[in-house]
Amino acid sequence: MSRFARAETTLSPATSSRLLLAVMGAASLAACAQSPVGRQRADLAPTTKQAAIERPHRVAALHPHPVYRPHRSVDTASAKSSASQGVASFYSDTETASGERFDKNELTAAHPTLPFGTKLRVTDVSSGRFVTVRVNDRGPFVRGRVVDISPSAAEALGMVDKGLANVRLDVVQ
Fold first, then answer.
1. Do the Cβ atoms of 141 and 156 come closer than 8 Å?
2. For 38-52, 104-118, 119-133, which range has the lowest pLDDT when averaged over its residues?
């Protein structure tokens, strides 16, 4: 027998199983390296604005469900003439959605849609008392409420003991 034939017969079962595991591991790593998923992600991220315009179907693949963004009018003249009515409450927090620190002594409010810095006249419909507040937070997150006001604004309206009040909101500025 030749020395090559003797080498083939001397492989032990442990050595052959190690060799088989090494080949399988190398094959699985090679399959991962050639995965089309990595190429698809690179193709989905356009490098320029022009590339995003040319391939909108690839960008849409990232978000299979459209993101709902309600249309907000930026026309302040029509916002001034409109008034909303509902229930107001007062709240205290440590930080506002606008990033500024909450101060219970300031006349501020939380409104779900109005831009930060908007001035609102909040009028208690039962007593006729009103206060002008500045929107600096988001909320209220309770169904049926239209605005949350700071404790000092609630005190000016006389609603601290009640906790809630029916109010009318008018955009001042």
1. no
2. 38-52
